[in-house]
Amino acid sequence: MRKTVYRVLAVAVSLVLCVVFAAALLVYARPMKDAVYDLSMACSGEAIPSDWVFDSKGWTVFAQEGETVTELHPNGFGGFTGLPVPGQTFYFSRIMTEELDSPTLRLDAANRNVAVFLDGKLLYTDCPELDNRIGYLTLPMLEWDRTEQVTVTLPADYAGCTLTIAQSTDLIGEKQEPDTTVWPCAVTLYCGYAYESSLIAESFQTAVPASFLFLAGVFLLAVFVGQAFRGKADVGLVCAAIMAFLWLTSRMYMTSFALFYFVQLPVDIALQCREFALTALLAFLSSRMTGRRRVILAVLAGAQGAAALVYLILQLAGSLSFGFLSVMYAIGLGALLAALVCGFWERRKGSWFFSLFCPLTAAGIVLLGIAVCVLPAWRSQAWQQITLGSFPFFLWPLMLLMLAAALAVAVMEAVRRELARRTEADLMAQRQELAYASYETMRRQHEQVMMLRHDMAKHFRLLRQMTGETAVAGYLDELIGQNEKIRPVVQSGNQMLDIILNGKLTAAEDAGIKVEIVRMQAPEKLPLSDAELCSLLVNLMDNAVAAASEPGVEQPYIRLDAHLKNDFFVFSCKNSATWEWMQERKSQEAVPKHSLGLKIIRQISQHYGDLMETERGPDYYKVMLAIPMDQPSK
Question: I need a labelling partner for 486 at 20 to 30 A (CA). Which of 40, 120, 416, 469 fits?
Fold first, then answer.
């Protein structure tokens, strides 16, 4: 009971600390939106929502020539009609009732010239050389798009004053009708620190996920390098790292301040990086699948990558079409859905990766669906995009959820494999120590037996000299002769090899296993260290005895062959085995904590040229290895 209380208390304290300080950390991720007023008359989105209602927000839109004022009429969508002369400068004004500290105006005038007046006094103009008076301005169009919005600081006593904004219009040609529609630019009123807050929030919202993506990519590459040094590299980790880095780049290029930090290229870097990140995601998921599902997803990843490459070429050539974009988005969305289906199938097959990836992705989809249903703005936008059949609306959220789940599980998988590798290494080290301890036990037993035989022979000879009876003398002579004829089964010339094999073969014979020695020749000193030779022989013999002792083996046997050939010490061990045992052994070789004996044998062999082969037959198992003798002895 006390342990349970301690555990619950530890979890509670940890959660409270994490929540409190995470909240403090994320304070800067939320801008001060309550200090920002959107005074725009048009809808700010790409498509007008069905429930959007026009609101003039106190603005009066008019044209003025001298003292003659012509009021323009709203069309209900944020535009105004009734301009007397095509290309004429128009005005929109309102009384400022909002009260803010450090009031600042932001005008989103992309290719329009503007002038700003407060109670008729000029505050800002794009064309200072003109007659900047209301009713006398003729503002020309800009010949280029602005790289940043127009920002105007208002005086502290602006409240109650009339704000007037003059804006140029586009003269299309002589055939343009006088009743031209004009569109006032978007206007935002905010306080200075609110704008700074929005920049800080945007920077923080970008930096936090970007940092996590970068760290995840670096970690996965570090794991990949570590595996490469051990001779087993997982290329899927490179795909996952590329995926993280590309999404990081896309996120950086989507910020409002990206123009000031990065070189501008004639392609949409943000979208291009997202597309190639999608390709890397599909390739990574393919590397975690098996059988036909891996092939299917690899083909889909190739198709999506090819579409992204064609998109890049079309951008550079300046011949991009909306139809191709739709096709590319459809390929990406279809590939992601196929990856989900294949992932759930792999999960049913027992895949550890997809047993975590699929529930995480499904949970993200459910939470996103709940948010869409609960939040009116999201619900309206979702319904509008569904009616339009917009692929990007579904593609990018689904990709983001799957990418986050894939990176999280990839990191957990890498940590799990590293822990398993270290656990296996510890177990192998312990087994090697046990093997050497077993050898030491056998060596001491061998010495004791040899000493006992030596003492017995001396006692027998002494008794022979002391007796005078013919029958007793004959019996003692027989015992002395039998004692001298006792020889070990294995006499190879290498003391350690002889001790280990004789001990293990005696145990095999006691278990009813027939022992056959084809050849047994070994040098007095081998290149292997004592610990390596001990581990090699003990694990070989233990595996052979275990296989030959299986219940299904009809004629159990172990056949050994050791000899020198062309400066190599060649050793082979063949034993009887059942087909079921060999299949089970084959499936266990890739699993930690199983088949450690064979892994130890293979690890030692790799230190000496990796000259090892295994052979499976219908009723036997054979291990053959060669140790080069030209290496210095350890």
Answer: 469
